[in-house]
Amino acid sequence: MVTPDLRFPRVLHALIHLSLRDRVMSSAEIAQMLTTHPVVVRRLLAGLRDAGLLEATKGRAGGWRVARPLDEITMGDVFRALGRPGLVEPRVTGDHPGCPVEGAVNRTLIEVETEASDLLLARYEATSLGDIARAAMTGDR
């Protein structure tokens, strides 16, 4: 059984908390919230900093802060900053390259899974972190 990649939901969780708390949070604080190690947090959030979603300050009072309002950050922005973890990737085999059945299966998988990925990405782009934060505050989700 494959262990699911949980970076995406964990980072969404952290970003919303960072924004709602409206203050700089240390890697240690975020690590405690996500039940992980501060080094993991720093590695995970570096891509978001590079994408302009987070600001980082060094030093004793340093930490992380959301760089833009949550309504200006989509799930798609975060997903891309993380390198698109866990996205449906076409699974094909090459065991029997001359077999017409294997070829048809591979072409169909690529078509269906590419369409599923496109739909998923479109939905991520249409959902802001502000939408999620409001749902959390009202108990809608």
Description:
- The chain has a single domain (7-138), classed as Orthogonal Bundle (Arc Repressor Mutant, subunit A), CATH 1.10.10.
- Helix content is 56%, strand content 6%.
- The chain has helices at residues 7-21, 27-34, 38-50, 75-81, 100-125, 129-138; strands spanning 54-57, 63-66.
- A two-stranded antiparallel ribbon has the order 1-2.
- Helix 1 packs across helix 6 (129-138), helix 2 packs across helix 3 and helix 4 (75-81) packs across helix 5.
- It is elongated.
- The chain starts with 6 loop residues before the first helix and ends with a helix.
CATH class: Mainly Alpha
Strand portion, in percent? Answer: 5-15%
Average pLDDT rating = 90
Q: Give the total of beta strands.
A: 2
Widest beta sheet: strand line-up: 1-2
Cα distance spanning the termini: 28 Å
- Largest sheet descriptor: 2 strands, antiparallel
Write a concise keyword list for the protein shown above.
single chain, 141 residues, mainly alpha, Arc Repressor Mutant, subunit A, two-stranded antiparallel ribbon, 2 strands, 56% helix
Write a brief structural summary.
With 141 residues, this protein is mainly alpha-helical. The protein contains six helices and two strands, in the order αααββααα. The protein has a two-stranded antiparallel sheet.
What is the topology?
Layout: H1 7-21, H2 27-34, H3 38-50, E1 54-57, E2 63-66, H4 75-81, H5 100-125, H6 129-138
Helix pairs in contact: 1-6, 2-3, 4-5
